[in-house]
Each structure stands twice: as structure tokens, then as C-alpha cells.
Give the backbone structure.
Amino acid sequence: MNDNVAIKVERVFKTFNLKRPDGLIGSIKKIESPFTNSKIIALNNVTFDVYQGETFGIIGLNGSGKTTLLRMIAGIYVPDSGIIKINGKLAPLLQIGSGFHPELTGPENIIISGMLMGFSKSDIENKVEKIIQFAELEDYTNMKLKHYSSGMIARLAFSIGIQVDPDILLVDEVLAVGDISFREKSYKEFLKFKDKKKTIVYTTHILTDLHEVCDRVMLLDKGVIKEIGNPLDVIKVYREMISKNK
């Protein structure tokens, strides 16, 4: 793997089994009949590289495979076939709060999340106070996570990912977490991360964000790469695709 490549995805396929009942919709036969399996192709022969220090956007209609791809890069899903290689420590900001334990406190969840990202316990312990402060949760340090609001959990998850200072950041529609003031603070921190020449893979439906922050953009359609290149050019193709689907 070339040193200037942060993420290599090569000939990756991913399918999911979909169980559905036989019979007519709304009929008693449908309720009583056994389930049959069918497969959905989520990613179909996907190959691309993300370079060190690049902000790489991924766009596509709902169901195009964006989130599946990010989860595979994060190691949450395993490819049916193909190769994914990561060069550096990676922090996934995907489904907010996923992997947290409700019976543990905020700091305890921070330590576990950081260690799962590949950081040492001592490194994470040194960052706990800063993470709590960024998330604005100083008054809730000793409270179990099950008593946090969804907004508090979202702030904590975002703060962990941005404050552990990884080499690679995966961002899936999470820059809109919390209230307006926290969203503004989060976006500024995201831009600082970019200014440090860190590698970012970013999915969003807000196309102006992609145009402003991305070096390249990839368009997925039903698990297949349609375009990779200049953000303006790829966004134009995507807008045409949206118009055709109206």
C-alpha cells in the first residue's frame, strides 16, 4: 500500500439477506406463510483510494450504499469479497452513540470508545477532561449514560471522535448534532481538523458543505461508483440524477 494512500478499497462486494413473507399483501396467507430469503447488493465491485490529507466526499440517493461503505471502512461490516486497507488510526463518527454502554458514565464510555479506536488507555485518560469540556457535560461527569438525553449522547460521541485526534476521520451526517451553538462549534472543529491535513471521509446531503470542504467527491448509485472527481462536476451529475428520480 502506497504511503500517500490513507484508505484503499479494492473490488469490494457486500450483500445483505432480506427476509420477506410470501403471499399477497394484507392477506392471512402472508401472515401464516414461511419467510423466504432474498439478497440486496449494497456494494458492487467498489474500488477507490483516499489519499493522505484529503477530504473525500461521498454522495448518493438514500440506499446507494454510503453508510454501508463507511461502516465497512470502520470495520463494523466485513466485505463479502475484496480488500479494505487503512493506513493510520481511524475514528468513526457514524451512528451517534453506537457502542456506548448505558450503565457506564461518560468518562468510562470515553475510555472504552477510545481503546476500540486503537488508542492506549493512558492516552485516552489524558483526554477525558478535554472531551467532557468540549461536549459541555461537566455537570454530568458521574451520571450513567442511560440518564443522558439524546442530545447529550450526540455531543459526547462527536467530542470523542474529534478530540482523540486520529489520522483518519469518518463523518456520516453527524455535523448537525446538538443545538445551534454546538453545531457551529462542531463545524469549526471539523474545519480545524481539515486544516491539520488530516484525512476525512465525509457523507452528507448538504451539497454546499461538500463543495466547500471536499477535495474530491464520489457518487454512488445502488452500490456502484458512478463518478469520482472534482466536487462541482460530480455534484452536477448528482443533481441530474435527483431530477430524473422526481
User: Anything to note?
Assistant: Strands lie at 5-21, 35-51, 55-59, 81-86, 90-93, 168-172, 199-203, 216-221, 224-229. Confidence is low (pLDDT under 50) at residues 23-35.
